[in-house]
Specification:
binds heme C; alpha+beta; Jelly Rolls; 4 domains
């Protein structure tokens, strides 16, 4: 990702300025000297050139980082001066793919023409060192966590040993995230370890157990491949790491929801170095102080995978996709994705008034330097805007990056010799309602392109459920299950919607089937427990609540509901114990306070009961049961006092 070394980064939403304090020193001297024009006269390393390297190169070119050599000292630079001139003039370095003028991104890594000319002239003049007193202070780099100590650090259960020799590897590590209650994650920092071999990383989350099961199929940690299983970008957050990037601080108020039982899926793209390496990445999670407010971010994906069928030798194979926005959005980031054959990538927005706005253009795609590009300022696109993507591919032998020699027919797929055509945009809709409309339109479009996309039916079902169209949602869940009967999440959600429609029997049957495919699916246990309780089958309900609590010991709702069933069975002491746990975990649950109060009241502990009814009413002044219970408890307490007198 962008290396936010330049001045200040205007954060995506809040306008919050983040300053990379350690580098301010070089910024000053640099802007004074180059100021848009190449420096004149005799150029020296210490005065004219070092500031450029300190600012633009050493984030990667220093010991322990991704680049193969350091550029911190005069000697380092002088030895390679000629190559440096070549790679800066060709703009191979610093690596940065988007074309200038086609969307403005935070932390762009691009030398100005003046800087390139300064380096060229300095080398041509014999690359003199100059007066050591002119040398700006070396930039300070933070060792360890750059965003400070994380709230939660997660590691591989044991390190992964990377073979010494090629081919390059995509390895997906599945790491359980040990939280016992819902958390909101503001941002994530990855320390990949072995920076020299890790080329980039992507992070996703998998609330199902499916990635874990894939991991278990071989003895080493993780599983191979460019596909990340069922993991997803959480709540529209794009999480990635590239060499030299400064971690994104996140935005308070837009954190993503992390549920207990979720696995982190970390994909590392690694290139063996000739000797075995120990891979031991660590991930830091930073929690938000409060749940997010307003609409969540969404990911919008344009893609043309179904159109990829590139004959060998074809130099200019084009695919396109387009999508009309059903609502206004702010575009926050772009993540274009293809493998080795892609050449040009274009993302363009045509507004309803006919004006065009480039979202991104890359005229010489290089998989190696892929990145997530965050806009310097969000781009507002009104409803009715058509977003289009157009990618071209070169499957000839002239393409030096072509992995197949001689070239062969290429279709879409997850192997590195296959291709892909995705343009993901991270957008912020204006309201939760708009987010649902956007999601509905996206998945309807996905299904028009690929009517066998199980995931799209499932997500369309969720969108329609959120939109308040339960019958339509049920139809989509069933369509998903027709194609994949083992889709436990679709079964569970179908059950929930059926239950709200009064069809509790079929709901129970769906939960049970979900559990057959996914025995540790806490949500399905919980929902089944609730359905059984509604049917009066209390012992069975208790069994399922206990399963939930085995899987998610801190789920207050399960403690509360278990308590309710126990009290229905007259087991008051056990019930009160459960309500107490619920209240401790979730002190702001009016329901749990009311239940605890009721249990205590039944045991004659009126004083304590009154306290909890009052707390329930403080949290939820309209809680009718708590009000009634409080009235009864007070009455009883008063008459008890009278009797005593
Ligand atoms: C984002 C990290 C990053 C930044 C910033 C960066 N480099 Fe590099 N550089 C690399 C990596 C990684 C390589 C190894 C090349 C490869 O893997 O293809 C490299 C290679 C090079 C090479 C060797 C190229 C060759 O063909 O042998 C030179 C010279 C170089 N960089 C100079 C620079 C200069 C000068 C700058 C600043 C203007 C710079 N780099 C900025 C990561 C970076």
């Amino acid at each position: 990702m962008a290396d936010f070394k330049k001045i200040t980064l205007v954060s995506l939403i809040a306008g919050l300025a983040v300053e990379v304090a350690s580098l301010v020193g070089c910024r000053d001297s640099d802007s004074r000297r180059t100021n848009g024009k190449p420096a004149s006269g005799t150029l020296t390393f210490t005065r004219d050139v070092a500031p450029v390297f300190f600012r633009e190169c050493v984030a990667c070119h220093r010991p322990g980082e991704s680049a193969p050599f350091s550029l911190l000292t005069y000697r380092d630079v002088k030895r390679r001066a000629r190559t440096i001139v070549a790679v800066t003039r060709s703009r191979f370095m610093p690596p940065w793919l988007p074309d200038p003028g086609y969307g403005q991104f935070a932390g762009e890594r691009r030398l100005t023409d003046a800087q390139i000319e300064t380096i060229r002239r300095w080398e041509a003049q014999g690359a003199p060192e100059g007066d050591p007193a002119d040398l700006p202070p070396l930039p300070q780099f933070t060792e360890g966590w750059r965003l400070g100590q994380p709230d939660l650090v997660i590691k591989l259960p044991r390190p992964y040993i990377l073979r010494a020799d090629p081919p390059e590897v995509w390895r997906n590590f599945v790491i359980p995230i040990p939280v016992s209650t819902t958390r909101y994650v503001k941002t994530v920092e990855l320390r990949p370890g072995s920076a020299g071999v890790v080329h980039h990383a992507l992070l996703g989350v998998d609330p199902t157990r499916s990635s874990r099961r894939r991991d278990e199929r071989d003895v080493e940690p993780g599983f191979d491949g460019m596909g990340m299983g069922d993991s997803q970008a959480p709540d529209g957050h794009l999480l990635g790491w590239t060499p030299g990037m400064v971690p994104f601080p996140g935005v308070e108020g837009k954190a993503w929801r992390l549920e207990p039982g979720t696995d982190l899926v970390l994909q590392l793209h690694v290139i063996p170095s000739g000797k075995p390496e120990v891979l031991n990445p660590i991930v830091g999670l930073y929690f938000a102080k409060a749940p997010p407010v307003g609409p969540l971010m969404s990911l919008m994906r344009l893609d043309a995978d179904q159109a990829i069928d590139i004959p060998p030798g074809e130099k200019h194979f084009i695919v396109t996709d387009r999508f009309e926005l059903p609502v206004d959005v702010e575009v926050l980031a772009a993540y274009p994705h293809a493998h080795f054959l892609a050449k040009t990538m274009e993302g363009l927005a045509r507004l309803p008034d006919g004006t065009e706005r480039w979202l991104i253009r890359i005229s010489d795609w290089d998989f190696k330097w892929q990145d997530i590009y965050r806009y310097a300022k969000p781009i507002h696109l009104p409803k009715g805007t058509t977003i289009s993507m157009r990618y071209s591919y070169d499957n000839s032998a002239d393409n030096v990056r072509n992995p197949s020699r001689p070239p062969k027919r290429v279709v879409a797929g997850l192997r590195s010799s296959d291709e892909m055509a995705h343009l993901q945009l991270q957008v912020l809709p204006r309201s939760a309602e708009d987010a649902v409309l956007l999601k509905e339109a996206l998945y309807r479009q996905a299904l028009r392109k690929n009517p066998s996309d199980v995931w799209a039916y499932y997500e369309l079902g969720n969108a329609l459920r959120d939109k308040g169209q339960p019958l339509e949602a049920i139809r989509q869940y069933r369509a998903a299950l027709e194609r994949d009967p083992s889709h436990a999440a679709a079964r569970n959600n179908l059950g929930v919607v059926l239950a709200t429609q009064g069809n509790v029997d079929e709901a129970m049957s769906q939960y049970r089937q979900a559990l057959r495919f996914e025995p540790d699916f806490a949500d399905a246990h919980y929902n089944l427990g609730n359905a059984l309780r509604a049917k009066g089958r209390l012992d069975e309900a208790i069994r399922h609540y206990r399963e939930v609590l085995r899987l998610e010991p801190d789920l207050a709702e399960a403690h509360n509901n278990l308590g309710e069933v126990l009290s229905l069975q007259g087991k008051l002491d056990e019930a009160i114990a459960q309500f107490r746990i619920a209240v401790r975990i979730k002190p702001d649950s009016a329901e749990a306070h009311n239940n605890l109060g009721a249990g205590l009241g039944l045991q004659g502990k009126l004083g304590e009961a009154i306290t909890h009814f009052r707390q329930a009413l403080q949290i939820e002044p309209d809680h009718a049961n708590a009000r009634e219970n409080l009235r009864i408890a007070v009455e009883k307490a008063v008459s008890a006092a009278r009797v005593q007198r």
